[in-house]
Amino acid sequence: MLHNRFGRLAATALAGTMLMGAAACGGSEEPTTTASPGDAATSAAPGGTGPKVGLAYDIGGRGDQSFNDAAAAGLDKAKAELGLAEAKELEAGNGETDAAKEERLRLLAQGGYNPIIAVGFAYSGPLKKVATEFPEVKFAIVDDEAATGPNISNLVFAEHEGSFLVGVAAALKSEKNHVGFVGGVEVPLIKKFEAGFAAGAKAVKSDIKVDVKYLTQPPDFAGFADPAKGKTAAEGMFDAGADVVYHAAGGSGGGVFEAAKAANGKAIGVDSDQAKTAAADLQGVIMTSMLKKVDVAVFDFLKNAAAGAPKAGTTVYDLKAGGVDYSTTGGQVDDIKAKIDEYKQKVISGEITVPKEVG
């Protein structure tokens, strides 16, 4: 379930004091969660000799069973394998300003955390500003290429290619020639998921119907953390005749899964293998998930940073590089796996070019 731990940032001095107090826990204690005004903060102190890592989550934070949890998995692997001295995790609040995001990143930098990872494109402007204030700190941002600088690594993905594969799966499994897509917020990044999904479905069945619904419009990013809206959107699609619905809506995807279960339909997860991470009573409706390997990107960056050689600029994790894929947990796509893999190889070889924009 989602953990709704949002609020507003406190004044800089108070927040800075609380951050430093939490960071001082140290030792070999287990990770603990401490409440601070506006930020749910998890302080993990493995006690190694490696770097002190800061990670700022997008809306939903650790526990969203999707995008943020994928980033958390990369951090957890780094804790286990890289001997981090400490890791500090901070979460974003719903509806917060760029100034709040700036302050979160600034507090991490002031607290001696280096490198620092911002999870999500919403940090683009704030990270660009803070990175210039702390040129000695190495920053990375997931899903954004606009924030550039000599100390910024941009970790981006070919979401359209992974979405193409689950679009193929949806069309092959649909008995009604009717599928749906639920996007969290209508921004260019999420439109890439839509474009790839629709292209994949229509590559299999040119006349298939693809319903599309976005939960919110920017600057309202609550669509990534509103299961009730996700459920309502998916219910409308199932009621209209769709039998498979794909979501790219973060924590709101839990509502899509609930709707699929109630309608005896099928759902497609995103980012993480959600047949493993969703609530136990909903896992059976998830026929596959589009895997966006944020965990791999986060770990790679931290590994390079620990070695003193983080790569500034853009690194693209596409299908050919194994940065996106589809899951097979539960065996529901075993009967069509060979067909999906045919399309996969065509994308990798360049025979098929998957569109990034809705045409």
How are the elements arranged and paired?
Blueprint: H1 12-23, E1 32-36, E2 39-44, E3 52-56, H2 67-81, E4 86-90, H3 98-110, E5 116-119, H4 124-133, E6 139-142, E7 152-157, H5 159-173, E8 178-185, H6 188-204, E9 209-216, H7 227-239, E10 244-248, H8 253-262, E11 266-271, H9 274-277, E12 286-292, H10 294-306, E13 313-317, E14 324-326, H11 337-349
Parallel strand pairs: 3-4, 3-5, 5-6, 6-7, 7-13, 8-9, 8-10, 10-11, 11-12
Antiparallel strand pairs: 1-2, 2-4, 12-14
Helix pairs in contact: 1-3, 2-10, 3-4, 5-6, 5-11, 7-8
Structure description:
With 359 residues, the protein is of the alpha/beta class. The chain starts with 11 loop residues before the first helix and ends in a 10-residue tail after the last helix. It folds into 2 domains: 12-157 and 294-317, Response regulator (Rossmann fold, 3-Layer(aba) Sandwich); 159-292 and 328-349, Rossmann fold (3-Layer(aba) Sandwich). It has helices at 12-23, 67-81, 98-110, 124-133, 159-173, 188-204, 227-239, 253-262, 274-277, 294-306, 337-349; strands spanning 32-36, 39-44, 52-56, 86-90, 116-119, 139-142, 152-157, 178-185, 209-216, 244-248, 266-271, 286-292, 313-317, 324-326. It has an 8-stranded mixed β-sheet, sandwiched between helices. It has a 6-stranded mixed β-sheet with strand order 9-8-10-11-12-14, with helices on both faces. Helices cover 38% and strands 21% of the residues. InterPro entries: BMP_lipoprotein, PnrA-like. It is found in: Cell membrane. Residues 1-24 form the signal peptide.
